[in-house]
Write a structure and sequence with these properties.
Length: 231
């Protein structure tokens, strides 16, 4: 059995890693990542759109993240326009779900809600939200919708889930910007970020995606999805 001194040394070494556990959008792109500002609503400290927007198929495509948390709530919202403000993220494209397991996670078949009319050439921004020990964590990717779908090989190369990753549905109305104090987070310390959480709570979607959209992106992460039976 390791001595108390050894255990304490290991915990001290791990503390900075646990405190900095966040997430990154790895596909189709990201405005950027800031260790200090990732809790800032709406885009983790990056208020300006990407210089080069990413083409994104109207028929649906993946959003791949590298999640450093072992347990977190996840959500994707959308704002239309060239330079949206925080108040513009009013469309849920992936309602909040509970995700287990760190590393690669894919939101499959992400698209605009069925009741939102968008056309090829129109600009939008996807906002990915996860829960963390600070409260809500945010990152954004700016896209231009296109009629051109991804090929099967392109899709598969950008949609990967780490071994053991799973998701399940949560109570409707649950917000992904909850802190670990409000919702258990495997590596959080329970310290919520009130400013970021309150901003997101007042600005997150009033236009919910239908259940079919939830099933669509979940099936896109085939082999790792759980909890569909509750829908």
């Amino acid at each position: 059995m390791p001595s108390p001194t050894t255990v304490l040394s290991v915990l001290l070494l791990l503390a900075p890693l646990l405190a900095s556990a966040h997430f990154h959008i790895t596909y189709p792109g990201s405005r950027g990542f800031s260790e200090e500002d990732i809790f800032d609503y709406p885009c983790g400290g990056f208020p300006s759109p990407m210089a080069e927007r990413v083409p994104f198929p109207l028929s649906g495509g993946p959003i791949q993240i590298d999640n450093e948390h072992t347990e977190s709530l996840l959500q994707v919202t959308m704002a239309l326009g060239n330079d949206p403000s925080g108040d513009d993220f009013v469309f849920d494209v992936v309602p909040t779900v509970q995700e287990y397991g760190p590393a690669e996670f894919c939101f499959g078949d992400v698209r605009a809600p069925a009741d939102v009319a968008v056309r090829a050439g129109e600009n939008a921004t996807f906002q990915v939200i996860t829960s963390g020990h600070e409260g809500g964590l945010y990152a954004c990717v700016d896209v231009t919708f296109t009629d051109t779908p991804l090929s099967s090989s392109e899709y598969d190369s950008h949609c990967e889930n780490a071994t053991g990753v799973s998701v399940e549905a949560v109570e409707p109305g649950t917000m992904a910007n909850m802190s670990a104090h409000d919702h258990g987070d495997g590596d959080g310390d329970g310290d919520g970020d009130e400013e970021g959480g309150e901003a997101a709570a007042s600005s997150t979607s009033t236009g919910g995606a239908p259940a079919a959209t939830w099933v669509g992106w979940a099936v896109g992460a085939v082999g790792v999805v759980g909890g569909l039976a509750v829908l």
